[in-house]
Write a structure and sequence with these properties.
Two copies of one chain form a homodimer.
Chain A (H helix, E strand, L loop, with lengths): L4 E3 L8 H16 L7 E4 L1 H9 L6 H18 L2 E2 L5 E2 L1 E7 L10 E4 L3 H11 L2 H18 L6 H14 L9 H19 L7 H15 L3 H9 L8 E7 L10 E6 L11 E6 L3 H6 L5 E2 L3 H4 L1 H18 L3 E8 L2 E9 L4 H13 L5 H7 L2 H7 L3 E2 L7 E4 L1 E4 L2 E7 L2 H9 L4 E5 L7 H6 L2 E4 L7 H9 L3 E3 L5 E3 L4 E4 L2 E4 L3 E5 L4 E4 L4 E2 L5 H13 L3 E5 L3 H9 L5 E5 L2 H4 L4 H9 L3 H25 L4 E5 L12 H13 L4 H17 L11 H6 L1 H20 L6 E6 L5 H22 L6 E6 L2 H5 L1 H4 L5 E4 L1 H9 L3 H14 L16 H15 L4 E4 L7 H9 L4 E4 L4 H14 L1
Parallel strand pairs in A: 3-4, 16-17, 17-18, 18-19, 26-27, 26-33, 27-28, 28-29, 29-30, 30-31, 31-32, 32-33
Antiparallel strand pairs in A: 1-2, 2-7, 5-6, 5-7, 8-9, 8-11, 9-10, 11-12, 13-25, 14-24, 15-19, 16-23, 20-21, 21-22, 23-24
Helix pairs in contact in A: 4-5, 5-7, 6-7, 13-14, 13-15, 13-19, 14-19, 15-35, 19-35, 20-23, 22-23, 23-27, 24-25, 27-28, 34-35
Chain lengths: 879, 879
Amino acid sequence: MRKRVFMFNEGGADQRSLLGGKGANLAEMTRLGLPVPPGFTVSTEACIDYYEAGREVEETLVEEIFTRLSDLEAAMDRRFGDPKEPLLVSVRSGAAVSMPGMMDTILNLGLNDETAKGLAEATQDPRFAYDCYRRLIQIFANVVMGLPIGVFEDVLDKHKEKAGVSVDSALGPDVLMEVVAEFKELVRRLAKREFPQDVREQLLLAVEAVFSSWYNNRAAVYRRIHRIAEDLGTAVNVQAMVFGNMGNDSATGVLFTRDPSSGVAAVLGEYLVNAQGEDVVAGLRTPRPIVEMADELPEAYQQLLETAQELEHHYRDMQDIEFTIERRKLFILQTRTGKRTAQAAVRIAYDLVTEGIISAEEAVGRIEPEQVEKMLHRTIDPGAEVEVLAQGLPASPGAATGVVVFDANEAERRGEAGEKVILVRPETAPDDMHGIVQAQGILTSRGGMTCHAAIVARGMGKPAVVGCDELRIDLGKKQAYARGKRLDEGEVITLDGASGKVMRGQVPLVEPDLGGEFQQVLSWGDQMRRLGVRANADTPADAALARKLGAEGIGLCRTEHMFMASDRLPAMQAMILAETEEERKAALERLLPMQKEDFKGILRAMAGYPVTIRLLDPPLHEFLPRIEELVVALGRARDDDLGASDIEEKEELLRKARALSESNPMLGFRGCRLGIVYPEMYAMQARAIFEATAELIKEGQEDIMPEIMIPLVGHAKELAVLEKVVRATAEEVKEEVGLDFPCVVGTMIEVPRSALTADEVAEHAEFFSFGTNDLTQMTFGYSRDDAEAKFLHHYLQEKVLPENPFAVLDEDGVGKLVKMAVNLGRKTRPSLKIGICGEHGGDPASIAFFHRCELDYVSCSPYRVPVARLAAARAQLAG
Amino acid sequence: MRKRVFMFNEGGADQRSLLGGKGANLAEMTRLGLPVPPGFTVSTEACIDYYEAGREVEETLVEEIFTRLSDLEAAMDRRFGDPKEPLLVSVRSGAAVSMPGMMDTILNLGLNDETAKGLAEATQDPRFAYDCYRRLIQIFANVVMGLPIGVFEDVLDKHKEKAGVSVDSALGPDVLMEVVAEFKELVRRLAKREFPQDVREQLLLAVEAVFSSWYNNRAAVYRRIHRIAEDLGTAVNVQAMVFGNMGNDSATGVLFTRDPSSGVAAVLGEYLVNAQGEDVVAGLRTPRPIVEMADELPEAYQQLLETAQELEHHYRDMQDIEFTIERRKLFILQTRTGKRTAQAAVRIAYDLVTEGIISAEEAVGRIEPEQVEKMLHRTIDPGAEVEVLAQGLPASPGAATGVVVFDANEAERRGEAGEKVILVRPETAPDDMHGIVQAQGILTSRGGMTCHAAIVARGMGKPAVVGCDELRIDLGKKQAYARGKRLDEGEVITLDGASGKVMRGQVPLVEPDLGGEFQQVLSWGDQMRRLGVRANADTPADAALARKLGAEGIGLCRTEHMFMASDRLPAMQAMILAETEEERKAALERLLPMQKEDFKGILRAMAGYPVTIRLLDPPLHEFLPRIEELVVALGRARDDDLGASDIEEKEELLRKARALSESNPMLGFRGCRLGIVYPEMYAMQARAIFEATAELIKEGQEDIMPEIMIPLVGHAKELAVLEKVVRATAEEVKEEVGLDFPCVVGTMIEVPRSALTADEVAEHAEFFSFGTNDLTQMTFGYSRDDAEAKFLHHYLQEKVLPENPFAVLDEDGVGKLVKMAVNLGRKTRPSLKIGICGEHGGDPASIAFFHRCELDYVSCSPYRVPVARLAAARAQLAG
């Protein structure tokens, strides 16, 4: 028979998965000789067995628990249920991964009518004994029997009022005995059963309650959010009670070995005299700062500081310690690695390295990449009073304040005039870009984490809250409504893109602090990682920002935004409306110098680093007004009897927009398909890139490294045709300008077929860049724009899918294509450079996968670059 | 040095790729001792070398040709260019695959001013000699020098007029000498060079002209249509001339050993006395039926019949023979396997088997699957006079006559009243189904070979012409225009779905004849094939038809059409509009009995065979009116001030239609995603299937074999969830009806991810059925509805893609996924049954691929079943 219950002195820190984090720690502390009350741990395997047996505690486990209980009785020289001097125990849950939301601690287990009396006699303190007893009934009734806590508090309040006292501890023993009687009656009436007088039944019920809490709602939610597996199970720790409520020389408290908020290397904590643990947690009494203990309980305080130091050195990280002082004697109940803010995580890691306690590798390994991103953005002042108007999805981190504007043109107008605006729309589309550029933040009532607004905002590092479906927007009236309140255009609101909150008025914000520790930790990481990190950037400003944040090049420079600017759109539309190749070429001639200037700006900002420029990708209809708008405009033009040429022009636009409309634009006429049908368009873009390169070289810039990327290739022949167009253009320009420059041509791998035939594709590509957004759409058959609202939300809720595949790369499916493409591509061309430029390029879990796939680099939005740098380093450390 | 020129007696029939078909045949006939004029063949390798050398005839080849020419001179005991008794030769092209459109034959090569005179003297027949000479100049000028043929005919006509004669052969030698002089002058003037007097130069130029013709336009088009590789090259046959124009005891002609039109086992052919080959081809004189030769040239005729018999036995197939009789002596110039109609192909193959000449395997191998389909449909009487109104794409074979109707409702009304109608629409959509059902044929002005109308029509075996873009339809006026003519509603037209022609009026049609030979050949094939053949059928009528055409089950029974019927749509819409699960269940309750009757009908018609039923697949908005229609209807209801409840109902429909609308419906909320979000919907369908099964069993039907197919699965978990729903329903029904029946659950593999993770998917699937339409859409990232018009047409024209991947399965990309899914699926579940039910299931090339992938069956529309049976047999024979 496998052993499933272990005394604390039988285990150690390395048995987290078997004993849970708390159990392993208690065992480790016991092993270190620290003052830990003795006890035993029921293993996680026992919990798993419990579920496998159909939620039944097996008889063999019961026997094992009672055997260990005998050992504990021997160690404490007391007997559980002894009517004279009873042993009391606490029961705590403890999974392998620290997980709030599981069952609360039960203290004082082992008290019943008889033992309570015994305890009163043994301690000569009936107030203490009956206070313990009423606490046990209260917490047991709540946690094990599921009764509401309030009804017990009501009884207590009634008695306090009657006795004319304000704190629990002021109630005398007689009153407390009355309270106990009333509590037991309450249990009988509400739970239809007695509070168990059999102390062994108490223990078994408590153990089972811990097991059950593994599947309670809060725990399940926590696991889902933190991606903790469902089948780990939890351990149960049964520990001899010590009492912080044995008078004014007793206390209980918590201590952090360093400040968990700032990371400053000084202890922080609080304690309560004459109290038990749940008094601290419940917040019924206000605890006092730990430093005050130096005066009140100086010896215990000194011992606590020394123990804290010892624990931090032993565990080599900041500790969160729970302690109790029973009649001046210190007991450590628990220690664990303390949770901390992003700032503190960096500061502590940095300090521990400089203090020689941990290595730089460990420091890097301890900072969660997501914490890093939080540090890059402004945040809501935690002390601020806020009026929350609505709650949406936290689509792009950071906080922003501005006046509400419901229209992109208005946002542009006000923004250019220097006003700070928040663009509020049902959803955004590419033709809102000019407004988004000028806005401080974006708020939409529709869309998911990967809608247009979310992606664009993240790319620009602007705060965004999307899918805020309690917000009803009336574009006509320029008003929005939420929670029964109205919001007018021009009113000031504040968005918190990290929490999804929409607040009224100007809320105080905290500026990000990217101190020297932050830079140092990141640069330690840079030395460790193999995976390169580039940024997705379309403008010189973004490119400069990306450099500042540590990007080693641009992995995706989109060229379509360049055509959206109001001075270029007419030329672009003329190109689209062209009926002949000549007309098209004439329109392209007008675009050429503008494109060239765009490219010069970006290439100059990234001199010395590669810049991967993707040729035109979106369907052409995105450059035309929407059909509905055209219909309206045309109707108005006719009503107003405008000139025939004006009406004709509008008719022509409408005709073309209709001709270009598609039932599935995602799978339509875009990407290299445009380049194949209109090679002159790609030739113009290639020419703009090469002329820009040549001019920069002539200006004396060195290492100008453009890389031309062909999008949406599905068949090697497409790339073969377009590679020829690009290379021929390069030769022409070289001839014209009389100097040589590099011409690097590669392709996106974003169509499943190109991954499947990557060996053929690689014959024409010097590099691959995975477009994992589209690759995910096509591999799953999900339209990102539609899926989230229509069924993906449901899928995630019902766990049909473990993750949102647009946020975390689907390794089993999409990942298989990535691996195939890497292997096939390198088989054909061992020197093939391979990167990824989809949304997943900034996701730490996905980055770890790309590292394992031996990609050369990831590319993400500038604000994700530090995250990716750290994630890449951690991926390398993970091996 | 590799030998590149071969005497006829050096080769044989097995050297087609080296000597070309014609050369190998001439060698083979020489080997058999048949009366073949001697000669030699310049190999296809020499042609390839010619192109590799940049269209240059290498000096070494010239030497080899002249060496063989010496051998030929020796064999004939005449010298090429001999002014006394010159050797003349013919030059013919001959590729490995018979290919019309290549260079014409050049006869009488070797004549010049001097040898013509010599020939006149040697034969004592100057008329003959100068007739040969003028023919040579004429054909050489046209074929080698590229001059138009007409100018020479004009000269000839002028002289015939002057001489007052009507046929060429009536012109005397003096006139012909004048003609020769004028011809040479014409060449000088038009080609700016002399007709070459050097006979060796004539020969080399002719050889080069044959090589060049490999890349001429007609040949290239033919290769593209017939999928012949570009790099095979052509051989050149140089053969000693014999003369069918040496007087009235000479002749030339062609003979088929069997009737190429009907297949009847009797020779058919025609001949011309005193003529050369091109007289027959050119149609300048009307040839006479071959049987008349029995009287005119009895000995030669007898010898011809015997030789024909010998050749047919030797080549074991119907032969198309060219012969010449020179002064009563028979020469065979060429024999090849004769082209034939579909009917003849079947009849001949059948007869050859019964005559013991070929095996059943060979018979099956000789019938092209596409020929079989043609036999299943009515065709246009070849003798009919027709007025072609327009030309579209031949989307679904067969011919149909009816009155033009521009609206599905009108089509339904007239059709139900017994009128024959042709539904004419810009394009069709699922809500036109009721009209399509009642129509004889479909004509659309938009769409490609795989548009909705095309697929539906092929599925129903109805003729369809689609993408007829010269047809302009004015739905408002109920008129259409094409080629400047108008077509009104109610006018009679005839469609030919095999050619894409639209004709005015009632054109006589020929009924299909599926005679005993046809059935016999197909059943021989059935015994050979390993691959099963099922049909896609949604109605009992289709199921019965499928059985008649040899289907061994239904591979795809769609359930969505069942909801489109006008008596069911309201219940379906109520289900969609339901706000709660209860409302939805109530609506489903109404649909249940109707669904059950549908399934009973189909399962009864297919008793003894499996019926794979796909649960609801299309997006729900397909069951609602289109948004534009709703907007119009709502506006009208408001204008007309209809009752509030009516307006409300319309508003509700519009709201829901808007909520269900998607930017990419192809990748949207459909298939099993519906089943996951609304499990009660799939449960209702499963219940209808199982109740139908139980009732049929109770009625005494045996072997009712429904198989439930879950569409659009992309993740194993989806199938796991829905398998559970279906199996639980089966258990419920078994309990209720008190009897057992099979419950088989499987899935479509149509999302790339399900192919990539087929090992996991197979854990929950008893069968896979590849949905290659969607799989192709997602693997290529092509929206079938958009791609054809927007870029696919261009891709095929420019050869960016070798084939339309929606017609012929893309083996390199999509096929790779198919192979992966087969391997992974069978690894998990060796008993996994695997089929395919996309459009490719009826395409012979794709069927061969599926055979090689070791699929268990293909499923296609009923009318493709015989095609698939034959293709499957041929795939097996191909090994």
